[in-house]
Request: fold
Amino acid sequence: MILHADADAFLASVEQRDDPRLRGRPLVVAHEVVACPSYEARALGIHAGMPLGRVRRRWPHVLVTGYRPEAYEAASAGLFEIFRRFTPLVEPGSIEEAFLDVAGRDRGDPGGMAAALRAVARAELGLPVSVGVGRTKLMAKLASRRAKPDGLVVVDAELESRVRPRLRLDELWGVGPTTWRRLHAAGLHVVADLHGWSEDDLGRIVTTAMARRLLSIADGTDDATIRLPGPRRSVSASRSLPSTRTRSTVEGVLEECVGRALHRVVALDGAPRVPRRIEVLVRYDDGAHVQQRGPLPSPTVDPEVVGATATRLLEQTAYEWDGRGVTMVGVTLPLPPAEPS
Reply:
């Protein structure tokens, strides 16, 4: 069986854990844009990506905390250490979620193992973790979604046989708005509607890869393989912000992203892997992206050297003269291959 474990409102939960005054109160982790609302804030209608100014105007009582990357990375490390106590077969999904293959380790009671994992995370990290249990990764992830917040849902064989045919296609992991519109136009709304379709026929509506995936879901043969992460090929950091072309604002966000990315490089396990190149990404208010890449003067983790190169690449995006507002700035540091152990 597969577990999908996902820490609830992760950033906000870390803040509420570390400051008892924030517990049970509507809270957002934000700079200019909401990165993570607590569940109390979500109940008001606040969501990630909402401009902070709008939140302050409409809900002046909502508490606001800044972004503390070191605290979140430490909490994430603790979370994954707990995951690996239960099984070495852990596939990260993000800094706060993962799939775990517990077959042969759950003593025939995957729900009991999931409950134990949740209890350990709460006791040792002070964080709520929702867990879904299923035969495949899709079913486990759907179960964890239903379990939120701070719950546990087990999809056994009997429940899966009833639920799978009725799953809405637009709720399936990986089915985006464009794919959903095409499926809907073809009269395909739930998984049961896919029966009788061939890969060739479905491939005329969606991509071949998506056609194969949808048919495997309909047949119950979808992915249950845990893919262990290899050495990281790069580290990244990004931040959203309200639409702007103000140089000081954009460069301030860039400097922050450089610092966070370098912190992640230094914190990597194993022999040092010092970046030689850097990439700077700008997203505009119409959703378009512009990226600039270039070498560092020499392999380094010196913030001043990396920051100067990043600023030069930022200028090459010509964001100040583009006419569109910048809504996200990101930095990626490709890493040299890890040395064989």
About this structure: The two ends are 32 Å apart (CA to CA).
